[in-house]
Design a protein that fits this description.
Layout (H helix, E strand, L loop, with lengths): L1 E3 L13 H7 L7 E2 L2 H11 L7 E6 L1 H12 L4 E3 L1 H5 L10 E6 L2 E7 L4 H14 L8
Parallel strand pairs: 3-6
Antiparallel strand pairs: 1-4, 2-3, 5-6
Helix pairs in contact: 2-5
């Protein structure tokens, strides 16, 4: 899944809940915040470390793809699709993505996919991410 480091979209982002998503793309209407309780529950399956500063949102497919393309346009993106799957997976087949925004990890998940499975996959990337190397 694509991972972005230090996405510079807004200098005024409050970095709390829905504000993060809205600052990335003001056209988002379907975003729903994933409860921290669910994130913690899934995190315990993949790591013994404390849960990092992660926000997760579900998006309708059209808005998910629009935001995926927005994130991919950033010059600082580290796109891990080829290393993870061996081929460049077309965007329409991506179910979730994780990126960093000003020190906070953001996960977007399509509303049409199994949420817990997608979160577990993305949180495995988060658990293996090394901030010094800037790679998952």
């Amino acid at each position: 899944m694509p991972i972005v480091r230090d996405l510079a979209v807004s200098n005024t982002c409050s970095l709390r809940g829905f504000d993060v998503v809205v600052k990335l793309n003001r056209e988002i209407y379907s975003a729903k915040s994933v409860p921290k309780k669910l994130l913690r529950s899934v995190w315990t399956r993949v790591s013994d470390k404390p849960l990092p500063d992660v926000y997760a949102f579900t998006l309708e497919e059209k808005e998910f793809l629009s935001n995926l393309e927005l994130v991919q346009k950033n010059k600082r993106i580290i796109d891990t699709r080829v290393s993870e799957y061996g081929v460049r997976v077309p965007n329409q087949f991506i179910e979730a993505l994780t990126f960093e925004f000003k020190g906070h990890l953001i996960i977007f998940v399509k509303q049409t996919v199994p949420l817990v499975d997608a979160l577990e996959h993305e949180l495995r990337h988060v658990a293996s991410w090394n901030a010094q190397n800037k790679a998952p």
